[in-house]
Amino acid sequence: MQSGRDRRTGLARPCAFRPWRWSARWISSAIFGFYILAYYGGAIPASTLQDWNETLPKLYEAHTPAASTGIGAHFFAGAILLLLGPVQLIGGIRQKVLDVHRWTGRAYAFAALAAGVGGLGGLIMSKP
C-alpha cells in the first residue's frame, strides 16, 4: 500500500481529483438547500409555521415572532449558502465568467452574514 508521500522526494503527493466525490457532495448540498427552501420556506406563504415544530420541536412559537423571523432568515440564508457554495468552486466559472463568480461571491458573503445574524437573533429573542 502506498503512503501519501513521494518516494523520491519525501514530499506529500497532491490528492487525486475524484469527480464522483465532489459531485456527490455538491448534489447532496443542493438537495438539502432545496429541501430547506421548500419545507421551511413553503410554510411561510401557506401560514403553517407551526409545521416547523414537526422536525425541530419549539422552533416556532407564536408568542415570539422576532425569534421566528430570525430563525427563518437563518434557514433561508443557509439554503442560499448551500446552493451558491459549490458554484464558487467551479474553476470554469472563475476563469471564463469572472463577473458571475464575483457577484455569486458577494451574494454568498451577504447570505453568510444574514445566516449568522438571523441565527443569533433567533436564539437571543427566543430566550425568556
What's the SSE blueprint?
Layout: H1 19-42, H2 52-55, H3 65-88, H4 91-96, H5 98-126
Helix pairs in contact: 1-3, 3-5
The count of strands amounts to 0
* Radius of gyration, taken over Cα atoms and rounded to an integer in Å: 20 Å
Rounded mean pLDDT is 85
**Biggest β-sheet, characterized?**
none
Number of helices: 5
Give helix % range.
55-70%
State the low-pLDDT regions, or none.
none
First-residue to last-residue Cα separation: 58 Å
Reading the helices and strands in chain order gives HHHHH
Given helix and strand content, the structural type is: mainly alpha
Entry keywords:
single chain, 128 residues, mainly alpha, 5 helices
Write up what this structure looks like.
This protein is mainly α and 128 residues long. It has one domain (21-126). It is 68% helix and 0% strand. It is elongated, with a radius of gyration of 20 Å. The protein starts with 18 loop residues before the first helix and ends with a helix.
Short description:
The protein has 128 residues and is mostly helical. The chain has five helices and no strands.
